[in-house]
UniProtKB/TrEMBL annotation:
GO terms for cellular component: clathrin adaptor complex; endomembrane system. Belongs to the adaptor complexes large subunit family. It comes from Esox lucius. The keyword Cell membrane does not apply. It is a peripheral membrane protein. InterPro entries: AP_beta (IPR026739), ARM-like (IPR011989), ARM-type_fold (IPR016024), B-adaptin_app_sub_C (IPR015151), Clathrin/coatomer_adapt-like_N (IPR002553), TBP_dom_sf (IPR012295). Residues 620-791 form the Beta-adaptin appendage C-terminal subdomain domain. Its main location: membrane. This is Beta-adaptin appendage C-terminal subdomain domain-containing protein. The keyword Transferase does not apply. Residues 735-750 have a biased composition (Basic and acidic residues).
Amino acid sequence: MPYLGGEETVRELRRALSNPHIQTDHLRYRNTIHRVIRLMSQGVDVSGLFSEMVKACATGDIVQKKLVYVFLCSYASVNPELSLLVINTLRKDCSDPNPMVRSLALRNMCNLRLPGLCEYVEQPLTAGLKDKAACVRRVAVLGWAKIHALLPNTEIDAAVVNELYGLLRDPDPVVMVNCLRALEEILEEEGGVAINKPIAHHLLNRLKECDVWGQSEVLSVLQRYRPRSEDELFDILSLLDPALLSHHVPIMAATLRLFLSLCSMLPAVCVSALERARGPLLAAAGSSSRELRYAALCHIQLLLRSEPGLMGEHYKRFYCGYAEPPYIKQSKIQVLVELVNDDNVAVVLDELKGYCTDVNTETSQAAINAIGSIGRSYDDRCLGILTGLLELKQEHITSAVLQTLRDLVWVSPQYGDAVCSALEKWEDQLQDTQGRGALLWLLGVYGDRLSGAPYILEDFIDGVRSEVSAEVKTELLTATLRVFLSRPAETQDMMGRLLQHCIEEELDMCVRDQALLYYRLLHCGIEDVRRVLQCGRRSDLSLGPLIGRPPEPISQWASIFNTLEPLMLGASSAGNSDPSTLTPYTLTSHSEPMTSDPHLMTPKLKDPDLTAPACSGQCLSLSSTLSPEEFERLWLQTEKGEFLEAYVMCPVPRCSPESLQVALQLVNIQTLAFTAPNKLPWKMYLYTHSSHTLTPHSSTTPPNTLILAEVLQAGGDGVKKVKEELIEDQENEREESVKEGEGGEERRGEMSGGVGGEDGGKGELLVRMRQYTGEKTTLTEFLSVLTTVLNAQHTA
């Protein structure tokens, strides 16, 4: 846009502002100042009129003063010396009988933002704190915050801080909120304003007098206050309860965060607060403001991490609208995945199927990934949708489907047959790098079942010289070698050509080194190649991983609620813990067998140190989520000999595996995977985290211990062999006790009852536990909890 003025215009305005005839005509003089402000807003440099505008501020016309002050605050940094000429006029206006003039002068005196003028501003600001007019006190309070921001290394006088604390009881609510904000900035290095019981109660009682943003500020400051008694806590909650249903989203969000902070030790109250805030959150998720909708969706995802069923009845509120932006659609899709259950899975899948063909590729891929996530529990419906999408022959849809199928069969290998059927007649040519990599992975893993796998690989190998992605090349090397192990006659020639190209012509060092590795590995023998490439797939084909993650404690994300962090982290990964970051405690190098009496539910331990669990302050928690892959990796690591392992015989629960999973979750033990009830051997994998309260007598107990467990119903030689080993250990212990004269006959009867009868273990469970610590009492106490649940489910 061209400027509507230049040097000639500025000279004309200077002459007009200096003309005595125009100065005596207030209307013409004001119009001239209007022209100056208009040119300034259009980008014209009118700083040369600074001295003329300084003279124009000496007037009783408030409108003219406002216009002149806007100009002076804009160009004060350009003319710091001439700005001194304004101070006298501003200080004079601070004593004007009109409170509007006084507040205007104080505000613009602080807005000059010149460090050299601060000494002239302090006295009017101090007087303004005691002014009779509320509008002047509002400006004076914020003025001290501006002075602190301008001179952060200069300490504000203690008398001023005390005066600001006194103004917290000002009758004007805006002055009170401004004082909170100013004290927060001035006392930032000291932790902000000090909130004691009288101040907290005063702020709570005056909360309704404040506007929306004032209430939000007060509620935010009250986060630091902790009630001294339970009665005081519930009095505060009673005052805050109506605000949870406020139709103003900032007030509701700030109140809910304060609820969660105050009730961190009362989970039932936190859940009740979340349920009361459900209505306003749903209203915010349907707001006409896109920004508010997105913020509400991100915070709803936080809530669902602890209360998955909170929004279950309202899943239709998260259906995507056609005109909604992609980032809102993707957030709603993530919420829909969390709300899937047996009752609505068919409806949700039909809705997600419609999103798979969205015009936005990211939304389409998000919907396909969501169907894959649901497919871990509802495989038949989801696999049918995914394989049907392959028939659309659209590049981005096909690529996303292949990636989803790859992830699905990696977690659930039992779906491999369905995936092979979908890829049997593959003829497409993909251009997407990630999709090509997923296709190659599937060809390598299931090449022995796909009749066309060698021919698809041959097309890739023929075009390897034009391939630019190193990821695709490395995947192609691995897939070709895997197919060679099962179909050597069809792939030998093409594999030789691929290795020759990658070793002699490839410029990428990672691809070249991997080709050299495979070439040298082939010289070692086919069995060595097979052992290296196929030993990694250790997943049990009969296991069905459960969808979702275990509910997280509300305290894990309460501190980031009503902040920008859920928006920046996308809320889908905020707060997640990586199991690989757990502190690796010292491991033991041997295992100790244990048995338990299923009737007494008390473990009988060989080691005298493994006595009945004492009150050591242990509690189980699910503070860190463990994926199936991470569980498998940690479980296999313990096979190297450094682990603690315990065996206990428990009766078979009469309930379904799903009911057992719910019962275990009540005591913070997560079921990761289990076998179908009608299959043998029946298995179930569990994990939990054991936390200890450190005491002077147990200072070496680790604060957090990861415990892995396997529950097995072998029904044959597996359990029988273990029971024979247990009986042998108990017989040895009995003989030792007989020699010591400790009543061996009585102990013999007790221990033989703990192992079971002669049914071969068919009606009992074998529990193996592994932990990352040397404390045996941790494993014993976990075993006691697990045994109690198993016996309770057996008698239910």
